[in-house]
Amino acid sequence: MSLEHFLHKASSSWMNEQGPESEIVLTTRVRLARNLKNYRFPSLFTSEEAREIMKTIQDIARNHFPAEMQAEFLKMDELKPLEKRVLVEKHLISPQLAEEAGDGAVILSSGEDISIMINEEDHLRIQCLSPGLQLHETLQKANQLDDLLENWVDYAFDETLGYLTSCPTNVGTGIRASAMMHLPGLVLTQQIKQIIPAIHQLGLVVRGIYGEGSEAIGNIFQISNQVTLGTSEDNIVSDLTSVIRQIITQERSAREALVQTSNIQLEDRVYRSLGVLQNSRIIETKEAARCLSDVRLGIDLGYIQNISKQILNELMILMQPGFLQLYAGRALSPYERDIRRATLIRERLRLEETK
């Protein structure tokens, strides 16, 4: 397995699976923040300490990880900026790790459902991903990997505070659980304006598709826990799952209301967006994301029969700047990217329709 395995395929193998509630919950993620005992946090450690940590984790992965995981170790200083950008667009590494000059690395499973970032904000960020709403199952997978690592390293842990982390907001369980949700019904009915503040009052956070500081383009929102101290991982995941299920119910109700009160207008919007994607010669990221969101809604409501939702998942990644430039084999200006984005979407949809 090589770096190209992760770069030239837009959709990860796990993304092609159908998970529970997948018409609304695209993916679920569990991330555990961990630090090694007797080492300073990444904000203060030396390059020598960073290299020791990388070698320790690399050796564990090589000698003790399950063979079926087919773990690949990638150092950030051996990757080109464009390669790192593509890994960020696929949610395999964070923007912060991509900026590391030479002290960071990542371990990826062949299916791309497991990602272990090394020397990001913490020594370890163990990330597991699943399709649909599977927070408890994803937590179990992350815990198994966490236990395996803890057999060979000592974590920085306090009996009162729990796992010690660089950022105080992660102290305790060190867990960030999240669900990526497609919520066009709540956006179109403007109910999202009331729901987001209510979610915040429950101790949860609403972010865009690429996490903190990112915009919720294409009506895709990432909802995650904020509290990590004073409660268990199971309770955090259970509480988040309960809220997610309530949002699913509200989104379905919003879609039903749109169909009952504005069916022709909604169908027209869906097919206009499909027409834009099928015929545009120039298209910007935000417009493409909005149109893809409309088409996906049209598929979910049964308006469109001959396009799969998996293709839309793939296109949401393929249309990103890093992927466009990777396929072009060179850096592109924003205008050139808009042309290539339109071409790629047209060709991919045409290929789907001829199957």
TrEMBL record:
<protein>
    <recommendedName>
        <fullName>Protein-arginine kinase</fullName>
        <ecNumber>2.7.14.1</ecNumber>
    </recommendedName>
</protein>
<dbReference type="InterPro" id="IPR023660">
    <property type="entry name" value="Arg_Kinase"/>
</dbReference>
<feature type="binding site">
    <location>
        <begin position="207"/>
        <end position="212"/>
    </location>
    <ligand>
        <name>ATP</name>
    </ligand>
</feature>
<dbReference type="Pfam" id="PF00217">
    <property type="entry name" value="ATP-gua_Ptrans"/>
</dbReference>
<dbReference type="InterPro" id="IPR000749">
    <property type="entry name" value="ATP-guanido_PTrfase"/>
</dbReference>
<keyword id="KW-0808">Transferase</keyword>
<keyword id="KW-0418">Kinase</keyword>
<feature type="short sequence motif" description="RDXXRA motif of the pArg binding pocket involved in allosteric regulation">
    <location>
        <begin position="337"/>
        <end position="342"/>
    </location>
</feature>
<keyword id="KW-0547">Nucleotide-binding</keyword>
<dbReference type="GO" id="GO:1990424">
    <property type="term" value="F:protein arginine kinase activity"/>
</dbReference>
<keyword id="KW-0021">Allosteric enzyme</keyword>
<comment type="similarity">
    <text>Belongs to the ATP:guanido phosphotransferase family.</text>
</comment>
<dbReference type="GO" id="GO:0004111">
    <property type="term" value="F:creatine kinase activity"/>
</dbReference>
<dbReference type="GO" id="GO:0046314">
    <property type="term" value="P:phosphocreatine biosynthetic process"/>
</dbReference>
<dbReference type="GO" id="GO:0005615">
    <property type="term" value="C:extracellular space"/>
</dbReference>
<dbReference type="InterPro" id="IPR022414">
    <property type="entry name" value="ATP-guanido_PTrfase_cat"/>
</dbReference>
<feature type="binding site">
    <location>
        <begin position="27"/>
        <end position="31"/>
    </location>
    <ligand>
        <name>ATP</name>
    </ligand>
</feature>
<dbReference type="InterPro" id="IPR014746">
    <property type="entry name" value="Gln_synth/guanido_kin_cat_dom"/>
</dbReference>
<feature type="binding site">
    <location>
        <begin position="176"/>
        <end position="180"/>
    </location>
    <ligand>
        <name>ATP</name>
    </ligand>
</feature>
<feature type="domain" description="Phosphagen kinase C-terminal">
    <location>
        <begin position="24"/>
        <end position="254"/>
    </location>
</feature>
<comment type="function">
    <text>Catalyzes the specific phosphorylation of arginine residues in a large number of proteins. Is part of the bacterial stress response system. Protein arginine phosphorylation has a physiologically important role and is involved in the regulation of many critical cellular processes, such as protein homeostasis, motility, competence, and stringent and stress responses, by regulating gene expression and protein activity.</text>
</comment>
<dbReference type="InterPro" id="IPR022415">
    <property type="entry name" value="ATP-guanido_PTrfase_AS"/>
</dbReference>
<feature type="binding site">
    <location>
        <position position="125"/>
    </location>
    <ligand>
        <name>ATP</name>
    </ligand>
</feature>
<dbReference type="GO" id="GO:0005524">
    <property type="term" value="F:ATP binding"/>
</dbReference>
<feature type="binding site">
    <location>
        <position position="91"/>
    </location>
    <ligand>
        <name>ATP</name>
    </ligand>
</feature>
<keyword id="KW-0067">ATP-binding</keyword>
